[in-house]
């Protein structure tokens, strides 16, 4: 028995989303397609140059928790907001989906994290994240009973950026494994992998995590190779299950000697790629927690990712449960 | 000479937008299609029942100011936010369009106004507005030089809800007319007309305002008639110009003995009607301030309104200048 299918842990962020042209990224030294970490001063500067925007709750693992709940699975989330207006918005949006979210908000500064997301005409998103209150997430924020009661605890590699979240994750892994649960992570971003390559490899090789999500760039960055198949071969040795997304080429799932190739769904127009990887993980984890075979897990991931990139914002505006039923994956 | 084409004055509001079904409106006693004024307690209650939402700067006259700027006209705005995160978002979004916005934010409580907007499957929006800092807008917020330098000063009837904004408007009218400028207003909402019918009629009949915007329901509410043509006949007597929108039936513009009927543009799908009237006014005022004939003013209004209802959120995400050029109205 378990109270939760999936517990997600990550940086709790409100997205500020606007369109821009390619030149804007160049002029402002924003690495396209990446998560650019910024400080408060640069956040002010970039915001002053940003066009009119809309706001939506985001955060990689937050989006995954929302997706898992939207599929109808029981989902929980740990992440640190501040007790401010953006923090209230984040808390509202995730709880409104039925996600258990009870991390104590930070009183006072720094404020709730925000990511300024610039979407270019090709639909690619370039993120500029000010971590704010996220830097305060630590072991004291772990609800041990929730970890013990979740089939899978999933976290984002981005958590290696704030100082103490990694301690919280290690504590979670201990609780989870002691209770016969599984740990999963996403490698998050190729530059994030560059910052923490050895630690991520150690998490995998030490068995701290069981399931790894990555996109092709992150997988190649992890093994410092430009050969995708080489990265896949290494992942096969280093973790129990790996699910590697490849944008329009779908995804590859490996488990021991098994390999499953999954197609991407048909897309009318890529509006905004924000949340694609997060929602792939949501679909996969929803399937996995409910005992589905790997190919169904992958198809659920493809479905959710394909839907979220055809809208603005990182969390699907429609019910993923309905979408799964329509696709006969429900 | 003039520094501004259009100055807009209104309640400065951040919209919180979510979809809901028809039953939700009934269960929560929300009047469909209307602006429901709510207090802080009801705002908390409704938010706790609201699904996951997105946030976007709104406010009726704020949307009009944004639309005027998006058409390429020179636009200014007066409205009161608080010095909080939502206030910063509102200020950013309107300034990012090049709108002059310099109203001093309120320090401390109440916080920036927000409107919880529920969009039903038919695309109709039902607004629930907590006025927050807007109640503090008063004559001290009038930048007399801006009023004197704007071809048209436009304000929303909603400004009769907060206590002192009406004094600010009367002061503006005096400055504007002394400088040979014109005053325009929107009747805002049929229930708002019900609250201030006599005062609105007096504004028109005393010549305090020159141009009136309304939709058919508001016009009929003003004269307590269910006969649209009767309302039109009365408006003809009571103001110099009236532009009356009729949803999918387009709009009617009257000036003295003149009458111009304008078609609505073709719509693929009504996604969210929020901002339709505000953007009609934006298109009309952009045309009018630039000396276009009434039929072109009306067509510009139809264009902007038609575009904004095919997206989520109250301000067009694309350039209205480009749209006008494409429609050969530029």
Automatic annotation (TrEMBL), chains A, B:
Keyword Transferase in record: yes
Source taxon at top rank: Bacteria
Record PROSITE patterns: PFKB_KINASES_2 (PS00584)
Molecular function per GO: kinase activity
Keyword field: Kinase, Transferase
A Pfam family recorded for this sequence: PfkB
CDD domains reported for this sequence: adenosine_kinase
Keyword set includes Transcription: no
Domain Carbohydrate kinase PfkB positions: 57-315
InterPro entries from the UniProt entry: Carb_kinase_PfkB-like, Carboh/pur_kinase_PfkB_CS, PfkB_dom, Ribokinase-like
Family membership: Belongs to the carbohydrate kinase PfkB family.
Name listed for the protein in its UniProt record: Sugar kinase, ribokinase family
Species of provenance: Hoeflea phototrophica (strain DSM 17068 / NCIMB 14078 / DFL-43)
